[in-house]
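#help-structures

NK: newbie question. if I give both the sequence and a SMILES, will the prediction place the ligand too? trying with nicotinamide-adenine-dinucleotide
OV: yes, paste both and it writes out the complex. here, I ran yours:
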Amino acid sequence: MNVSVIGTGYVGLVVGTCLAETGNSVCCADIDAVKIENLKKNILPIYEPGLEPLVERNQKEERLRFTTDLRDAVESAEVLFIAVGTPPGEDGSADLKYVIEVAELVGQHMSKEMVIVTKSTVPVGSSVKVKAAIAKEAKFPFHICSNPEFLKEGTAVEDFMRPDRVILGIESAHARRVMTDLYAPFVRTGKPVILMDVASAEMTKYAANGMLATRISFMNEVANLCDELGANVDLVRKGIGSDARIGPAFLFPGPGYGGSCFPKDVKALVRTAYEHGIPLEVLSAVDAANERQKRVLGVKFKHAIGPELEGKRIAIWGLAFKAGTDDMREAASLTLIESLLEQGVSVCAHDPAAMDQARAILGDRIEYADTNYEALEGAEALIVVTDWNAYRNPDFARIKKALHQPVIIDGRNLYDPEKMRDLGIRYYSIGRPMLAPTD
Ligand SMILES: NC(=O)c1ccc[n+]([C@@H]2O[C@H](COP(=O)([O-])OP(=O)(O)OC[C@H]3O[C@@H](n4cnc5c(N)ncnc54)[C@H](O)[C@@H]3O)[C@@H](O)[C@H]2O)c1
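OV: that's the protein plus ligand as structure tokens.
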């Protein structure tokens, strides 16, 4: 099938590449000329494990091409995915500007009957606007499909290749046929393709992210209470996660969720609901709890080091909003770093993938270390923000020797409190009792 994907970011690049991998002829288009030139040379704009070899192979075998010529991408497509960003507007609503721009362009340049798929996360009812924007100048019949994406950065290729389910919001038999054919190779193990109306598909994406964000904020609040009461959130998590009605996933407390989806999608759904006079009080609280949670590591740091922070230096391991990605959007590390800088603390940070992205945001206001151990030099204490595998089993003797004070503040509960106590490290984690070192 001739497929075009407009917007070659985290989602568009993965979608286009994986569709090429299953034999389709895919054109990925973007307005960012540098990104496209690099992609032509197999230089990826994002860090996403497993993606680079697929891009390279599919380009070599001529199933995947990259262009800035959006008109060409539209003209050649039987199926066109809109995968541009939908950033939050001032009031929290999702900004549809880029989606509508693309829809208008599709209407102007379509050369045959097409299926136009909204992959971007768009508020319920957006398909009506997308359809109207296409229809303004369309000279051929077209079919709208809402196909929300559930991939996770860091495992995006695997998630797209082996989805838990595929959601298709469709309005015509033609769209159903084309889309179920396109997805057939990805659901051979029997995972469901769930067909529904377009509004329900749009809502499904927001409801899924709202539910996941709720679990995270809920567990963060439970962890904070565990901290106060001397309970251990690890045990509580296991205790509730083994209940089949609850399940074990997404129950890990941390420094607050970030990334390009949860924060923005939660706010956008709250906004949509507000506009319709249906307050989403649970989700509003989830959002507020997350904002609070992003400050927890800073509070623990102050508690550990004392109120006089001015002039102190701190090592930070992990900048990306989660492991496996270089994405810094809404990362908890940013809230922490801003608050440390405000208090006169200097920061030396390390991240295996997100240093360039961090530099683009923070510039030279912090230092960047080549290795995680280098970041410790001259530092008062270590704060672990992102759960990269490389941080899971470090050389604790080396950490202790490098730090002015043997203090680790762990935002991801990576280490064993008893082991830390035995090593003489003052160890603060999220929702687990601190065990005072004996030596
Ligand atoms: N990142 C995720 O994990 C994820 C997961 C599921 C859904 N989504 C949703 O998918 C959408 C895209 O997210 P992303 O993270 O890939 O965004 P991104 O910012 O990484 O990529 C968007 C791309 O669109 C391009 N673009 C913008 N306007 C354009 C235009 N008019 N024509 C062509 N290209 C244009 C940009 O240059 C950029 O390369 C968003 O709606 C997001 O909410 C994201």
